[in-house]
Structure formats: C-alpha cells, structure tokens
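Entry 14. Structure prediction run on the chain below.
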Amino acid sequence: MTEASSETRSVVIEREFAFPAERLWRALTQPHLIEEWLMKNDFKPSVGHRFNLRGEWGGVLDCEVLTIEPQKRLAYTWNFSHEDAAFDLKSVVTFTLTPTGAGTHLRVEQAGFSPTQKQAYGGAHAGWKQFLAKLDEVLARGD
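Output returned:
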C-alpha cells in the first residue's frame, strides 16, 4: 500500500473577542454552550474523552479530546466518515486563546484536509466563520 501525498491543508480563522479568556473557555468547554454555537455533543473537558458532535444536517463527527490547557488551548479530533474520499475527513481542531488588552484573541485551526478535499476545505472555512459568529452571540449573552 502506498501512501497518498502527506501534504495537508489547514483552515485557520482568527478573531478578537471583547471578553476575557475565562468566559471564552467556558463557552468552548461546557456542553450546553457548545450546543448553542457549534453542535449537539457529549463533550467532557478531559484528555482522552471520546465524544460526538451531531450536526443539524444529520452528520455525526467522531471526536477525542487531545489537549486541555485551561483558558489557553483546547484540541480534539474532528473525524467524519464518508464513502466519498472528498468528504472522508480525519482532522484536528485546535483553539488557542491569547489574552489581549481588549479581551481575547482566538485562533481556530482545523488541520488535516488533503489537497483533493477542496469542497470540504471551503465548507470548513465558511462553517467556522458562522460558528464563531454564533459564539460571539453566546458570549454577549453572558450566561
């Protein structure tokens, strides 16, 4: 078996939030808040915890928590099994929080798109922008 090109692409979205890292961290790690801005889930902030994200579109993402650095960094796998290789995705999403004078800078990186997954890559780029707009609404509400 030969391995296809190991070159992968990443979607990176960076955004400044006018809220402290503690508040942003809460929205990234509490299941009821994650559901409001991302998807239904059974997330637990524990390295090694396997969970699912369930999209309104009917898809289920298989995930596993890889990194937890409270108020700094969160990473988990973001895998979607599909019979079409263009959509069969094994990726890692990493959230990096950096306090700023005005709030918190959030960097979201989803790494692992193959060069042949142009549609999935484009969909992820648009999707993360929408997710972060919803995240901003959740943060502004101030639960």
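The mean pLDDT is 92.
Filed with the rest of this week's runs.
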